[in-house]
Design a protein that fits this description.
The protein has 440 residues and is an all-alpha fold. Helix content is 62%, strand content 3%. It has one domain. It is built from 16 helices and 3 strands. Strands 1-2-3 form a 3-stranded antiparallel sheet. The longest helix has 33 residues. The two termini are 58 Å apart.
Length: 440
């Protein structure tokens, strides 16, 4: 006899947990639901919340992470390379300036303290500028350029100081170079006004050059102080801004030719410049004690360093053999103490800066960002390779420092402020996506 199939009785639905049943049946107030989710009884809050809401507590809390939050990975790349370069520069200024500081001021650390003080002032300012909106530059570009031109004119008053045949310093209790400010204000002014000029006359018209007359005035005022090296850098900044503005290629070639003619003319009318150029062109320099002294000792310092260097602080050239050892020729001290490896590290840092600038330019939609970043890139990276070219002997002595590394408070401050301007442009880029999953 076949047995009937076994059938199981229907299962009862499992009873929901007490907390779920209570939330389903009685939703309650939002505060009660939050308390139930956190496992605390209703009416009791976390100690942190009680502290922030009790009378007399702080109404708001400043979060450093929110204030300086990067909007793009380019922020980290540019800021990180800049910070590392500044730290390396402080170390090398301490080493290169110790002897001259002792001979002139009676202390080994005087030059280092000045440079470190400038860095302490400039780095927070760089971060503060990195938070500025784009409208700030459009509003204040004209005032900034005309103000720095006015400061440059003050060098021809009793407040001006002449050094090395150039009158480009102001002494108002603190010495600084207004021409370093002009580098930044020219780049920002062109970024604001050059697109308007191009829209008015077209990208193929040479009338573009008639719309940037204030830039010529700024360069002429600097040239009056006989600072040809700074004028060459200013001219390169202008060319860089024009090149990244989207105009035709011939718009860059013509001013390059005109600029080269102007440099030759200024060299011909200056015996000092002609002596430096002739010593550069003469393979067997005969004026050892004058025009050839600095270039030759710079090369000897590099040769003495070899591949690995003689060791940090062990330079012989800085013992009054190499003029401007902590300034224009600090790259020679780097080569002597850190060797060829140290030189490659410095060159690599400026290549990394160039990569960061180019990345920001490529991601920019606003012509202001492209023009200003291009001009500042030519300034910082171009000036660095001009300085290195002078030290290794492929260019005549021009008297331009190595950005972020050479001693000089005003140059360091303005270079960091310029990088802060570029950092502020990264806010317009796509932010980094953060993983919001909660770890279990």
């Amino acid at each position: 006899m076949a047995t009937p199939p076994r059938t199981n009785p229907p299962r009862r639905p499992a009873a929901a947990p007490r907390g779920v049943a209570q939330r389903t049946a009685q939703p309650g107030t939002p505060a009660q639901r939050r308390a139930a989710a956190s496992g605390r009884p209703p009416g009791r809050t976390a100690p942190q919340a009680a502290q922030t809401t009790r009378p007399g507590g702080l109404a708001t809390r400043f979060k450093l992470e929110e204030a300086f939050r990067a909007e793009s990975p380019n922020f980290y790349l540019l800021a990180g390379v800049t910070l590392f370069t500044v730290i390396l520069g402080l170390i090398m200024v301490l080493s290169a300036s110790a002897v001259d500081s002792f001979l002139q001021d009676g202390g080994f650390f005087v030059g280092f303290f000045k440079q470190a003080g400038a860095a302490i002032v400039a780095l927070p300012l760089m971060l503060a500028i990195s938070r500025l909106p784009m409208v700030f530059y459009r509003k204040w570009a004209n005032i900034a350029l005309y103000s720095t031109i006015g400061l440059q004119l003050l060098v021809f008053t009793p407040l001006g100081v002449e050094s090395g045949g150039n009158r480009n310093w102001l002494d108002i209790g603190v010495q600084f170079q207004p021409s370093e400010m002009i580098k930044l204000t020219i780049a920002v002014w062109l970024g604001v006004n050059l697109p308007q000029v191009i829209n008015r006359v077209g990208p193929y018209s040479f009338r573009i050059f008639t719309g940037i007359i204030p830039v010529y005035i700024a360069m002429f005022v600097v040239l009056l102080g006989q600072d040809l090296g700074t004028v060459i850098i200013l001219f390169a900044i202008v060319l860089g801004c024009i090149a990244f503005s989207g105009v035709a290629a011939r718009m860059v070639v013509v001013p390059m030719v005109a600029g080269a003619v102007g440099v030759v003319f200024m060299a011909l009318i200056s015996p000092n410049r002609m002596a430096r150029i002739m010593s550069f062109l003469n393979e067997n320099c005969t004026d050892y004690t004058n025009a050839c002294w600095q270039p030759l000792h710079g090369k000897w310092a590099l040769a003495n360093g070899g591949i690995f260097g003689v060791g940090l602080g062990q330079s012989k050239a800085k013992w009054s053999w190499l003029p401007a050892a902590d300034n224009d020729y600090i790259f020679a001290i780097i080569g002597e103490e850190l060797g060829m490896i140290g030189c490659f590290v410095v060159i690599g840092l400026f290549v990394a800066l160039a990569v960061a600038f180019v990345r920001i330019i490529r991601m920019a939609n606003d012509p202001l960002v492209r023009i200003v970043t291009g001009g500042i890139m030519i300034w910082v990276v171009g000036q660095a390779f001009v300085n290195i070219g002078v030290v290794v002997g492929v260019l005549p002595v021009l008297g331009v420092p190595l950005p972020l590394l050479s001693s000089g408070g005003s140059a360091l401050i303005m270079t960091l402020l310029a990088i802060g301007v570029v950092l502020s442009f990264t806010k317009e880029e796509k932010p980094i996506k953060k993983n919001t999953r909660r770890r279990r």
